[in-house]
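Example record

One chain of 405 residues, shown exactly as stored in the release files.
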Amino acid sequence: MATQDTGEVDFLFSPKAADLLAALTGADLSPAGHLSLLTELRASHTPAEAGALLRLAMARQKAAAKFPDADRLFFTPEALEQATAWPIAQHRAAHLHRCAPPGPVLDLGCGIGGDTLAMARHRRVIAYETDPLRLRFAQANAEALGLLNQVEFRLADWTAELAADRLPPAAAAFADPARRAEGRRLFGLEQMIPPISVLLALQARIPALGVKVAPGVADGEIPAGCGVEFISHERTCKEAVLWFGPLAAGGQRRASVHDDRGWHAIAASLAPPPLGALRAGDYLHEPDPAVIRAGPFVELCDMLGCHLFDPQIAYLVGPASPAGSVAAPFVQSFQIEEIHPFSLKILNQRLKVLGIGQVELKRRGPPIEPESLRPRLKLVAGGRPGVAILTRRGDERLLLMARRV
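Predicted structure tokens for this chain:
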């Protein structure tokens, strides 16, 4: 929703709008159908109301991938983009509830309420937000899910409240600092809004603190003594969280990976993993992006009975199949069929010899972008699927022909 007009927002929360939004739930909201829908809505509503309805209905359809109750919730496009996916919010809220002492939680910068709603299922929450529109949407979302009595919403700058010593007592706090300003991405923990120095001042008062940060956070910037969790959802490392005090699990560095069976966690000692040979017939395991960021390579090698073939390449290889291994949620696995020096000529030769008609291209190490090769590949019509992995061992560029396990 682009507008911040109070009348339009009030209209969206009205029973009349609720009925219209319910009717739009299964409608075709593709760009091709916008004009006819707007014409129909404008027959009985102002153009602004019709536009607001359509934008919210579109946001709800898009939000269905993040929120199971999206058809009852309220979003703005920008806030939806920034909102935490519901499985991640639930996972984080459960960790906070399990590890923090009894008492309420502060949600500092609640947005439209994604994390607030998850935490409110466990504890009372005091949610701060400086944007009045987002705060109204968060309140409406809490009401839609029957959680309004669990949350106290405050339209205020929590950093000013901290400086004036007016923050309420709390058992724990969670903060999601802004990492964009005026359309620019902010890099570094001290460039966030508020910066890490302010959050550390908060942590001196509320020891149990979680801070959402970018998954690319530099290791050298991570404060001493805190734990760091890299979180993967739908095979993408979506975010990292700095955990302090009783939430830190002893300063543990870990990856948490979500799949259709739930959550899986692996801690990293950062001990050097074993090195060994690269052989045809062996299995190659590609760690999940969050696992690569966390770095539990030696732990994965122990689980899978494997090793690295190059200390700078995050591919693990070994003779054991991943089937049934406790490491399986943390990796994608392939069986290596052939190993060759890399060149486009050799790749096309092997595609023909192996009868490959559909090829998955993967890369780790070489600077070449695999998809730039695709128009030049000579695939076999009606051929089988295969995988071409472009990598390196030292300065040697390699082509591994493989099949997905």
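Notes: Residues 6-63 form one domain.
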